[in-house]
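Record format v2
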Amino acid sequence: MASAYGWSRVLEQVKTWARANSPWVVHFNTGSCNGCDIEILATLTPRYDLERFGVKLKGSPRHADVLLATGPVTRQARERLLQVYAQMHEPKFVVAIGSCALSGGAFRGCYSVMNGIDQVIPVSAYIPGCPPRPEAIIDGVVKLVQSLTAPAAPATGPTPAEVPHILPPAGGPHA
Amino acid sequence: MPNLDDVLSIVTELAERWTWKMETRRPESNRIDILLTSTADLVPFVTALRVQRLGYLSTITGLDPGLEAGQLELLYHFCPGAAVITLRLKVPRDGSHVPTLSQIIPSAESAEREVGEMFGITFDDLRNPDPLYLPDDWPAGLYPLRKDFAGNGRLKPA
Amino acid sequence: MDPRLEAERFTIPIGPQHPALKEPGHFRITVEGEIVTQAVVRLGYAHRGIEKAAEARNWIRNLYLFERVCGICSHIHATAFCLGVERLAGVDVPPRAQALRVLVAELERIHSHLLWLGVAGHEAGFDTLFMYSWRDREAIMDVLEGLTGNRVNYSANVLGGVKCDVDDAQRDAILRAVDLLEKRTEHYLQVVTTDALFLQRTRGIGVMTRAQAEVLGAVGPTARASGVERDVRIEAPYAAYPSFPVRLVVDTRGDLEARVVVRMRELFECYRLVREILDHLPPGEVRGRMPRRVPEGETVSRVEAPRGELFYFIKSNGSDTPERVRVRTPTVCNMTSVVKLAVGHQLADVPMILAGIDPCFSCNDRLIEVDRSSRPAECWTWEQLRAYGVNHYHGHRS
C-alpha cells in the first residue's frame, strides 16, 4: 500500500497540476482483460476521486487531451485505436497503462496482438503493473503533466507523421 | 436436477440401442464419451438427448491431432447436472461439412462459428457464418488452432 | 426524436470505446423508429489468441496466462484451470487449500457483483449508485489485497493449492468487511426495488421466460433470474463446495429487475459462505506436490464464475505443456440472449439489456451499429447511446 506520506505528496502535486491544467481524459481498451480498466474507473470513485482535481473522463476523444490506453492492441482493435488517436486535437498525449499496453504483457507473442500501444501510436508515458493500482495510475498521469513543463524525453513509438491518417466515418448526430 | 447415475445409464443405453451400437468410453467418473461414426448421426443423436432432457450444450471443442492423422475432431459437450456427455466426431482436415445444431440449439451458433474459424470446418446452414473472434483482416485459409499454424511468433508492427 | 422524421431504419455504428462498460465489442442494431428489429454481435476486439498461446507455455506459465483471461473473474479462471490439471495429474489438493480457493472465489463474486451494480446504475443514469457501490466495493478490494497481495489478478492459486493463508488478523478484517457490506447490500436491495426511476429502466423490461432462457442456453444469474435452476456450485460441486453447500438463488420474473435482485441476493449468500468457511476452515497444508509433467488424458472443469458457468476442457499429451486448452466463458452463452432480447424493445432499453447480462467482453471478447435506414451510417459512441437511454426516460424531467 502506498505510504500515507507518499500518497499525500502525490495528491498535492495532483492538485497543483490539475488547477493549472484540468486535463480531460478519454479511455480506450484495445483488448485488455479489464483489470487495468476497472482500476482506471476506480480512480473516479470516491476513494481516489480524480474529478475533484478537475480531471474529467470524457466519452468522446474529440474533447480529450489525454488518452489512457490499456490492452496489448489486438488486431481487431488496432484500427479503432488509430481512429481514436486521430480524433483527438493537439496537443494530445497518450498514456499506456498496464503491462499489456507496455509490451503485450502476458499476451506478448500471441498471433492476434500487436504487443503494445507504442507499436501503433506514439506514447508519452508508461505505467507498469498488472494492473497498476489507482495510486500508480494517478502518479503516472501526474508525472506526464509535470514533464510537459520540463524538457521531456521524446515520445516513443511511431512519430505523428508516421501514424496513418485514419479519418472517422462521416455523419453522426454529434460529428 | 438429473441424477448423475441416471444420466449415465440413459446415455449408455441410447448409444447401445442406436441403429448401430456406438462406442462409448468412460474417461472420468462423471463423463461419458460417445464416438459418432458419421456426421449423419449428429443431429438425430442430439435430438434424442434433448428428448431425454439431457440436451444442455455447454460448448463445442475442436481438436487437431496433427497433420499425420489427416482428420480433425469435434467434441460436443452436453452437461446436464454433474454429468458431461461428449459426442466425438472425426471430420476430414479439409473440406469438411458438418450440419449445424443451431436450428435446434440456438446457442450452438456461436460455438460453431468459433470452431469453424479456428479449425477451418464448415457448418452448413448457419444463419450467420461470419467469423466471431478473428479480426476482419485475417487472411483466409489460415486456421489459428490447427497445429500447423505456428502462431506464436511475433506479429510485425504495422 | 424529431416528429417530422418518418419511422425509418438507419445504422448507428458505435465505437468500441465503451466508457461505461470499459470493454470493446461491436453490435449492429437495426431500428424501425424506436423499436429494435434486429441485433447482431461482432466480437473479436478482445481476442488475444489465448488458447493457441497455451499450447506453447508450460503448465505453470499457463496458470498466469489463464488468470488474465479476465481481470474481474481472474481467480475463477485460475481455479478451473488448476482443478483440471490437478485431476489429470492425480494430485490431492489439501482440504484447507480448497476451502481457501472457495473463500477467494466468493470474495471475488462479491467484488464482481458490486462492480456490476455500479455499472448497471451508471447505465441507467444513476451515477450515485455507481459511486456508492464502488466506494463500498473498496472494502473487498482491501480484503483481497491483504489476503493475496493484489487488488486485481490476485494469483491466489498455484498448481496443487493456494499461495496464501488466513491468519487471525486477516480473518477479523474479512469478517468486518463482510459485516459492513451486508448492511450496505440491504440498503442497495431496497434502492433497486423501490427507486422509481431505476425501476422504470428495469421492471418489466427485457423479459426472458424460463423456456427462452433454456433454449437460448443462458447461464448464471441471467438464467437464474428467469427461473432456470442452474448453478454449477450446486449441480456439480467442486473444490470445497461439497463441504460448504450453496443455496440456490432464483427469481421467476425474468426481467431486468429480477436480474438485479438475483445478484443482490447472491451477495447475501456470499457473505454467509465467507463466514461459514472462516468458521470451519480445515487445518493443514495449503499446497500439495505437483509434478512438472502431467500424464496424458483429457478432463473437463466446470465452475461457477460470477457471470455463470465457466467451462474448461484440458488435454494433456504427457509433457510439461498442454496439448489443448479450451475455454468457454459465460458471457458468450448470454450474448445470444441479449441479441434475441433486444428485438422488440426500444433503442433506449438496449444499454440496460446488455448490462443486465453482466457482459465481460474480455472473457469474451464489441461497437454498436444501429441500423436505421439507407441514410449514411451515423457514428454513436456507447456514451451517446447510454445518454439516449437516460434522456428517453428521465430527460423530460430536467
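The first helix of chain A runs from residue 4 to 21.
The mean pLDDT of chain A is 80.
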